Amino acid sequence: MSLVTVPMALLTLASIGAGAMLMFFGDLRVLIDGCVIAMLGYGAAVLLERLIVYLDDQAIRASERGRRRAAHGFAALSGGFPMLVFLSYEWFVFRQVALRPGDHPLLLELWSYGVATGPWTLFAAHVSRFRRTLCGIRAYAGHLAYWLLAAASLGLDAPPPVAAALMLLPAILPFIVGLLLALADRNTLTNVRV
Fold first, then answer.
1. How many helices (H) and strands (E) does the chain have?
2. Which UniProt keywords are given for this protein, alphabetically ordered (predicted)?
């Protein structure tokens, strides 16, 4: 994962620089829209993490009561729903910011990267200081998914369904880990850091 961290950090810095350049060029509307969307993304991340904790608890309760199907259902929701929300948010940001007509398409693309991935990365960093969490893996997967979306849409001119399908590839790992963690015994995982 550390191999991925360097490009993530560099692109995040570039997105901040792109935001500053957009402000310099007077493209304040896209800057303000991006900030509002990012704040909504952070709020969604906070609410989503509470939902995930609830779903994990329901999966454990169902498992303890011998209701395996319900446990697996809650665990699947806990593993898959967050990535579905995350990827939908990234798709929305890409369509609203990166593909916006303007004089500076590269700046828009870089700015959209920060808007799309920033809230989830900040939230993952915040949450990981307090408890074991899957947020970090989701953030990594989100960065990779956005790279695939941008490369497919902008570089390869892929149709939207193909770009969306490519975004799902990095989501497989957080889904599987989320599924397993939701079904795991919490007491045996107290010293495990994800």
1. 7, 0
2. Membrane, Transmembrane, Transmembrane helix
